[in-house]
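Ticket opened by: R.M.
Priority: normal
Category: complex prediction / small molecule

The reporter submitted a protein together with farnesyl diphosphate and asked that the result be attached to this ticket for the collaborator who will pick it up next week. Submitted input follows.
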Amino acid sequence: MDGNGRWAEQRGLSRLHGHRVGKDSVRAVVESARRLGIEYLSLFAFSTENWNRPPKEVDGLMLLLRRYLASELDKMMRHGIRLVAVGTLRRLPPAVREALQAAVAATRKNTGMTVILAVSYGGREDITRAMRAIARKVEKGELSAAAITQDVVARHMATKGIPDPDLLIRTSGEMRVSNFYLWQLAYTEIYVTETLWPDFREREFAQALGFFEQRQRRFGKTPEQIERDPSLRAAIS
Ligand code: FPP
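Result attached by the on-call engineer:
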């Protein structure tokens, strides 16, 4: 959700003001995704690298997160939204961590859309932790090296049980993945828009989905293979 800072600077406002308006875009996109029947929506709210920002900005973002959870929990329950948090949550200030864990617990049994909040998240950290957990099992003799398949790795990532994303939306024209879902993005379609996150609302989201609909997903196969084989066509459509 990039571009909050630039959006604010362009208007002579504080960066935090940009994040505040960005929070409204979060609301709009979650609502829009829910109405469209999207099953999983990940929001990269705060990266492991974001801890290096000025303390005032970090504190402001933490407060925004807490406020968001407080103001949205009712709606999540009403709409059956399940909240999942991925990232190094122990680094969060206790009040934010507790609010997040409470919202995750409260929505655990909801069966509507799943919203995955990536906070204090880093793709490399996610992979490293998975490797560590797998190594521990190997050390204990619970797993052999030969049994480490892609499936096993995926089950040790923070996103276990959550399908890999179909579409990555990158706002503010940034052409990089910024240490987001490094493992999970292997076959994800990437949509980059110049729109800054605070301006990214329902209409921009619909445009991104329109782009996705035009893509032919091949998963390494040739277009001819896909055209020829109806089961492949069905599986990837
Ligand atoms: C990156 O833009 C954005 C962030 C580090 C924070 C994103 C947070 C929100 C959208 C609001 C709170 C989130 C939730 C889930 C309620 P940037 O600051 O790097 O922008 P810039 O590249 O223009 O400086």
